[in-house]
Amino acid sequence: MAKQVIVGAGAIGSATALLLAERGDQVRLVTRRGTGPEHPGIELVAADATDAARLTEITGGAAALYNCASPLYHQWFTDWPPLAAALLTAAERTGAVLTAMSNLYGYGPVDGPITPQLPIAATHPKLRLRAEMWNDMLAAHQAGRIRAVEVRASDYIEANSILSTVIGKAVLAGKRAYAPGPLDVQHSWTSIHDAARTLVTVAADERAHGQVWFAPANPPLTVRQLATRFAQANHAPRARVTPIPYPVMWTSGLFSPLIKELRTTRYQFTRPFVVDASATTEAFGLTPIPLDEALRDAAARLRA
Question: Among 275, 241, 246, which Cα is nearest to 263's?
Fold first, then answer.
């Protein structure tokens, strides 16, 4: 039974904590308010993870320190730097494997499938931020100060996505749903359970350290196809989805900081955005859970 520390109790942090606890590990889940899933193997810890001394104390003796934090998108420039610095410090002082859950923003607009080997080509500072955090982790890893590994994934199915936050409830209710972008562009979607399984796997495998790995994903679907499959998997009426015109989205951004920030990632839905996670499958045998299983879980979360 190993000790594990996770920062962040959002969808990925909670899924990872439950996965580790159910296999018998001792998990400390760190959030500002001490919230998270209830499980005998999970200790909920209220702490400020930007406090390097406190995070080091919490992480002492842990096999891995998981960065599953998710600051509000429009607060990334203020919230991420101190948190990233504290995580690096805690990993260096304790020897825990620093295992980060990240995204694909750093690659910027792409032509063809996205692989971990693609260069970081984004020019917008916010799109580059997480990639630069990995560069700092990798530099510390290569210098022998820490052991580090990162998992990246496309938009999630069950949480924090177009499906879970925008169109899902309307589809389940048989109402017309409105999507903030084009409906017929191929896009990869990742289950939070596949992201959690990948995190746990690469944290414990020395062959994975010092590299970036993609969480496995089912074949890509357009937003329209995803909504249709979501309705079918949950025995809901036929999905009806209408795109919100970009001028309307742009105007909404004048009143909503979050919508304003989403302008920077619109390119992911106006051109194909497809993940190639074959390297993860080849190295660790990880494959995505059945799509309908993830879609039913997404519906259960919405109904709850």
Answer: 246
Side chain identity, residue 131: A
pLDDT, tens only, 202-249? 999 999 999 999 999 999 999 999 999 999 999 999 999 999 887 776
Q: Compute the distance between CA of residue 160 and CA of residue 148 in angstroms, rounded to an integer.
A: 25
DSSP 3-state of 17: helix
Q: Which helix or strand (DSSP H or E) is residue 3 part of? A: strand 3-7
Contact 189, 153 (CB under 8 A): no
Rounded Cα distance, 5 and 15, in Å: 13
Q: What is the DSSP string of 31-97?
A: ESS------TTEEEEE--TT-HHHHHHHHTT-SEEEE-----GGGHHHHHHHHHHHHHHHHHHH--E
CA-atom Rg of the chain in angstroms: 19
Please write the tens of the pLDDT for every residue from 51-71. Answer: 999 999 999 999 999 999 999
Query: Looking at this protein, which amino acid is placed at residue 158?
Result: E
Question: What domains can be seen in the chain, in order of their start residue?
Answer: 3-154+191-217+275-289 (3.40.50.720)
pTM above 0.85, yes or no: yes
